[in-house]
UniProtKB/TrEMBL annotation:
Zn(2+) binds at C119, C121, C129. Belongs to the ALAD family. GO terms for molecular function: porphobilinogen synthase activity; zinc ion binding. This is Delta-aminolevulinic acid dehydratase. It comes from Lysinibacillus macroides.
Length: 328
C-alpha cells in the first residue's frame, strides 16, 4: 500500500489539469514582426515564410486593422529600403521606410506598441550589421551609425528601439544618444544574446540582408556552442542600461533562456526566428504536424523556460485560432 505516488490524480480531468497548469499563453505577450517596403499596393508573400508578407504602407494599414481585430497590438518593424549604400544611410533618414512607417502607424493606430529593429544590415550593400572596412566589421565606428538609427527612430515616434547589431557597447552608446536628445524615456530592447544561427535563413530572403560574398556574422554574433558567453553578454547589457533582453533564436536555446532567467530580473524576450517558423509551416502544410498544437507547445516551452514575451511570426495564426475555435 502507498508505495508509489499517484501523479495521475492531478491529470484525471480537463478541469483538474487546468487547475494545476503552471504556464499559460497570454496573447498580450506576443509581438508580431512586420516587413515594410517602399511603393504602393504591395502585398508580396515571402516564399520561404508562407503567411508573411512584404507590405507597402497602404497594405500595412489593412494588416493593422486585422491585427487589432484579432487582439494583437505589439509589433516589431523591419524596413526594406529601395536603395542600399556602404553606410546603411537609409536606416537613419528622416524619410526612411521605418521612419515613415512609424509616423503613419502612430497617426492611424496610436495604441499599437511599435518596436523598431535598430540595425543597418537591410540597408548596407554588403548586408552586414556594422561598417565593413578592409574586410573587417569595425566596432566603434559602427556605434556612431547605430546611434543615428536609434535617434531617427525615436524622433519618428517608436515606443521601443531594439538594437540588433551585436557591436560591443551598442546599448550604452544608444542610451547616451537618446538621453542627450530628450528621449530618456524610450526603452532599449537589446538583442544582447544573439547567436550566429542558420535559423535566420528565411529572414535573409525576407529582409534581403544576407551578408555578401558568402561571408557570415561570426565575428559579432555568438557561437551556438557557448553558454557562459551569454552570461557575459548579459552582464554588459545590464550594466549598459538595457530595459529588456532578447534571446535569439528561441527553441534551440531554451537552456540559455533559463540561464538568463536565473541570473537576471530583466524582462526576457524570446525571438522565435524565421527558420523556426518556416520549419513548422512546412511540416504543417504537408499535414505532418498539427500546427496549432505544435505552435502552442513551442510558446509554452519558451514561457516555461523563463521568457516574459515572444517575438513570433506565428502570433497572427495564434490570434486567429484563439478567435475561431479557442486555443487550448
Ligand atoms: C539582423 C537581424 C536578423 C534577424 C532580425 N534582425 C538576423 C540576421 O540576419 O543576422 C533575424 C530574424 C529572423 O530570422 O526571424 N539585424
Amino acid at each position: 500500500m502507498n508505495q508509489f505516488k499517484r501523479h495521475r490524480r492531478l491529470r484525471a480531468s480537463k478541469e483538474i489539469r487546468a487547475l494545476v497548469q503552471e504556464t499559460t499563453i497570454d496573447i498580450n505577450k506576443l509581438i508580431y514582426p512586420l516587413f515594410v517596403v517602399e511603393g504602393e499596393n504591395i502585398k508580396e508573400e515571402i516564399p520561404s515564410m508562407p503567411g508573411v508578407y512584404h507590405l507597402s504602407l497602404d497594405q500595412l494599414l489593412l494588416e493593422l486593422q486585422e491585427l487589432r481585430f484579432l487582439g494583437l497590438n505589439k509589433i516589431i518593424l523591419f524596413g526594406i529600403p529601395e536603395v542600399k549604400d556602404a553606410f546603411g544611410s537609409g536606416a537613419f533618414q528622416k524619410d526612411g521606410i521605418i521612419q515613415r512607417a512609424t509616423r503613419f502607424i502612430k497617426e492611424n493606430y496610436p495604441n499599437f506598441l511599435v518596436i523598431a529593429d535598430t540595425c543597418i544590415c537591410q540597408y548596407t550593400t554588403d548586408g552586414h550589421c556594422g561598417l565593413l572596412q578592409d574586410g573587417v566589421i569595425v566596432n566603434d565606428e559602427s556605434l556612431e551609425i547605430h546611434n543615428q538609427v536609434a535617434l531617427s527612430q525615436a524622433i519618428a515616434g517608436v515606443d521601443i528601439v531594439a538594437p540588433s547589431s551585436m557591436m560591443d557597447g551598442f546599448v550604452s552608446s544608444i542610451r547616451a544618444t537618446l538621453d542627450n536628445h530628450g528621449f530618456e524615456h524610450t526603452p532599449i530592447m537589446s538583442y544582447g544574446i544573439k547567436y550566429s544561427s542558420a535559423f535566420y535563413g528565411p529572414f535573409r530572403d525576407a529582409a534581403e540582408n544576407a551578408p555578401s560574398g558568402g561571408s557570415n556574422r561570426d565575428t559579432y554574433q555568438m557561437n551556438p556552442a557557448n553558454r557562459l558567453e551569454a552570461l557575459r553578454e548579459l552582464a554588459s547589457d545590464i550594466k549598459e542600461g538595457a530595459d529588456f533582453i532578447i534571446i535569439k533564436p528561441a527553441l534551440a536555446y531554451l537552456d540559455i533562456i533559463r540561464d538568463i532567467r536565473n541570473n537576471s530580473s530583466l524582462p526576457i524576450i524570446a525571438y522565435q526566428v524565421s527558420g523556426e517558423y518556416s520549419m513548422l509551416k512546412a511540416a504543417a502544410i504537408n499535414g505532418w504536424i498539427d500546427e496549432q498544437q505544435v505552435v502552442e507547445e513551442t510558446f509554452l516551452s519558451m514561457f516555461r523556460a523563463g521568457a516574459d514575451a515572444i517575438i513570433t511570426y506565428s502570433a497572427k495564426d495564434y490570434a486567429k485560432w484563439l478567435h475561431n475555435n479557442g486555443a487550448t
